[in-house]
Amino acid sequence: MNLYAIVIGLIVITLLTVSLARFSKVKTKADYLVAGRSLPAFVLVFTLLSSWIGSGSLLAGAENAYKHGFAALWQAAGGWAGLILIYFIAPRARKFAQFTIPDLLEARYSQTARVLGVIAVLFTYTAITSYQLIGGGDIVHLIFPNISARHGQEIIAAFVIVFTAIAGMSSVAYMDVAIGILATVTLLVALPILTKSAGGWHQVAAVLPASHFQLMGDFSLLHCFELLIPTCLLMLGNQSMYQKFFSAKSEKDATRAVVGWFIGILILETVIVALAVVGSALFRTGEVHDNPREVLAYTALHGLPHIIGAIMVGAIFAKVISTANNFLFSPATNLINDVFVRYIRPDASNRTILLVSRLMVVFLGLWSLAQSLGTRSVLEKALYAYTIYSAALTPVILAAFFWRRATAAGAVSSIAAGTVVTVFWASDIVHTHLPPALAERDAIFPALIASLICLFAVSLLTSKPTEAQLAPFLES
Length: 476
Known about the structure:
Layout: H1 2-23, H2 29-34, H3 41-52, H4 55-68, H5 73-96, H6 101-108, H7 111-143, H8 149-167, H9 169-197, H10 201-207, H11 221-237, H12 239-246, H13 251-282, H14 287-290, H15 295-303, H16 306-344, H17 350-372, H18 378-392, H19 394-402, H20 408-425, H21 428-433, H22 436-439, H23 444-461, H24 467-470
Helix pairs in contact: 1-8, 1-9, 1-16, 3-9, 3-12, 3-13, 4-7, 4-13, 4-18, 5-11, 5-13, 6-7, 7-8, 7-16, 7-17, 7-18, 7-20, 8-9, 8-16, 8-17, 9-13, 9-16, 10-13, 11-18, 11-19, 13-15, 15-16, 16-17, 18-20, 18-23, 20-23
């Protein structure tokens, strides 16, 4: 355990050093929110990779793989599909060069769309941050059994709040470079070692059900799409991603970063699922059977040589911290840019903005911690968060870039419908009054259908947007 504690300690010290090193370079709102729009493609690749692969992959995706095998890649495939379209969006997003998604919504639609966008982002991103804290708490508990998972969450929340508050996007992006390299190398090295210790793939296949190695496994086609579509739509509308594009040095850097990002998540998501599948063959019973979301960290502790296991646990820990940083920082920028500066103190000095920004990080971090303490399933929480964002925001964000006829009224009704249906579907009312076959389905299809109907129908029934509204979103 001393070895694992040393590795975790070194990672914490490294991350803190990076944050403090960037602190002196943060002097303005743009420096804090979008790193002064100076990030090169190399940094963008790793910060995008680190922000995407967190507890959603390392806990929820791994839990799915432990239970169902390689069919869990349907969830990851949503991100892969989304990135193909993002390749064409990235240069347009950098050309627009604002700070947040609500900036985009107001410029293309209206102030009302901006406010509703802020609400949707706050609910989604604090929920995503909350299960990063759960993942970090699980790791702390595994390494130090005398510390409960709950206390572990509180410790991780403190780390995340401090790291994020220090230097904003600049510290987040440059920490992600170190974390991304560490996690990529470690996971790639761990897979063949773990597979060999399990007796090779033929032995893994002999131990596990045949469905673990089939395209859809034991899922129905509908269930596969319920995993794929929310992930795809979250990827397409992900505010954290757009903020990275807004932070890019140029449109060319943004486009190049997408290519590297696609290659990175294609490899890492597959490796993560493969590690969980091998772990499920090695550890069919015991603690990990009762808590399958811990399969990667548990396997690193009990299935790998100590030094490799310690580094892998450290890499998972770092990835969870990194993703929590990204998803905590993103809604904080909304409260600053879209509420404080927009409506409360438009003339606020850079010093005031930086101070309030850091206070918002603390507030949202505590809110995320409160959510994490009441969460039972990371996978359910992840899909709930993905669905709110996917149904409420992604359709209107894509329409801003690709459908000239989308109107402010259509966007407002779409955001409202997607949010309301998702929240309603998660309530007890649905399970009480709808047939079980319908009530047990994920919210993504009813929420997305309601959102799209409102977007298209209301847009076609209202006046066309002006050329001034369209200009920032059209190709040169």
